[in-house]
Amino acid sequence: xxxxxxxxxxxxxxxxxxxxxxxxxxxxxxxxxxxxxxxxxxxxxxxxxxxxxxxxxxxxxxxxxxxxxxxxxxxxxxxxxxxxxxxxxxxxxxxxxxxxxxxxxxxxxxxxxxxxxxxxxxxxxxxxxxxxxxxxxxxxxxxxxxxxxxxxxxxxxxxxxxxxxxxxxxxxxxxxxxxxxxxxxxxxxxxxxxxxxxxxxxxxxxxxxxxxx
Length: 213
Ligand code: SF4
Ligand code: SF4
Hints:
Blueprint: H1 3-10, H2 14-23, H3 34-37, E1 56-58, H4 59-68, E2 72-74, H5 80-89, E3 94-99, H6 112-116, E4 119-123, E5 129-134, H7 153-169, H8 171-191
Helix pairs in contact: 7-8
Bound molecules: iron/sulfur cluster (2 copies).
C-alpha cells in the first residue's frame, strides 16, 4: 500500500460516520435533560452553546452533514483565546463547527460530539477500554454529572461499543484518552477522590478489573 492509500485508509470515511450515528442513537436519560441546565443558561442547554462547548467534527463528518442538512457551519473564533484553541486543537481530519442553535436541532443530524456529551472513554492501567467517565472540563456545567444514576445503561452499552471501534481506528485519539485516563488516576490518588466509571453491562461486577482501574 502506498503512503497516499495508507493516509486515505486512516481517515474516517463518511460511511463509517453514518454507521457510528446508527450506534449513537440512544437517549442518555429518560427525559429531556435540557430541562436541568436551561434555566441557568438563558434557556439554552449548556452543551448546545458554543460559549460552553464547541462541537468538534471529523472533516468527513462535516462533509456528510453538509449533504444532509444546512444545520452546520464552520465555527469562527471571536477572541484571542478561541483563535488559540482553534489553531492548537484542530487537526488534519477535524474541525470545530457550530449548529444553527438549539431551537433548530435535528436529532438525526447531531454530531458525534453532541451525541457523546458529557462522557468520554476511560482506559485502565493496562490501556484497555473498560468504561466511560465524565469529561472533566464539563463536570461543573452539566447537571447530569451530579446524577449518574439517571444515565441509561443502554446508552452506556452502545457508546462503549462506539468507543471500542473508534479507538481501534484512531491511534491519536487512543493516545489522547490514555493520557487523560492516567491524569484522572493521578488526581484520584492526589486528592483522594474517586471518579465515577460507567461500566458496560458485560463488564459490570467483574472483580478482576478492580486492580486495573
Ligand atoms: S447533557 Fe448535560 S448539559 Fe447537555 S442538555 Fe443534558 S444536562 Fe444539559
Ligand atoms: S446539533 Fe443539537 S445537540 Fe448538537 S449542539 Fe446543536 S442543538 Fe445541541
